[in-house]
Amino acid sequence: MVYAWPSNLDQPDPSPPWTHDHGHNELFRPTTDHLIPMKKPLQFDTKRYYYEPHHNDAINGTYKRAPCPALNTLANRGFIPRSGKHVAYENIAQAARDVFNFGDDSILIVLYPAFALHPNATHLDLDQFADDKVQHAINCPAAPTRLDRDIGNNIDLNTTLLDSLLSFSKDGQTLTLEDLAEHHHLRHNQSRAESKSWQFGNSDTTCALAQYANLVGILGRNGKHGLLTLYVEDVKQFYLKEDLPDAYERRELPYFTTEGLIHIDRMTHHIGFQVIRPFPADDHSGIDIEPLTAAYEENPTCVD
Per DSSP, what are the bridge partners of residue 260? Predict the structure, then answer.
């Protein structure tokens, strides 16, 4: 059982059925017969946490949604208020732990800036994760399936971009980190050509590539590419329905930032550049750290 707010009240459950300590990821404790953290099917009450999709409404609308399919999944299932309005930091954080086992440090990186950049906010509507205040902070250029804010609709799914992402699978069934890196590079060049105020520093790069890395870390499951094989069908369901894929399995080991950075570094290596950490002082000065021509394009026979 995982905790969520009842959809009819959008208020906290007075006695939430926690499966672990409130406010922290549960630890994976290896045993002699279970040494490696795996993934297990997520068990929850489907009658209570039923699937009911909604799209982002206009100003003062009934429902609000984010540019992030994970946040929208939590709302569509009722793990956070189904309205997507007036959502508390801790409600999102705990739902992300319970459903995705998203690491505490990863949650902090995503949520803290969103609230800090909206002064005095204790609750946010989900569409505030895409407004002007969070640009180049948590909402970045060259997203996999959303347009940049200065180009068009940066909240709703762009199905043309999704079709493009899925088409980068070389076997038609799975998406490797190299496949994802190549799609990102296309999105980088597209956004650079179309944007009126382009910049793509180290933080923007990390933000954009993290969206691909998180797909692998959260949706990946055992298969031909190892324990975190990303399947095209899972990605398609996740983006189109904004729901947990039918074959979804929850991680036993929390998805911490360190793991995401390893995925990001592998993608930048394939493209042919490197993210500087800590981010330099001039990171938002209009620089673009990613080359227009990738290493795999210059030498297509090269094997990483």
Answer: none
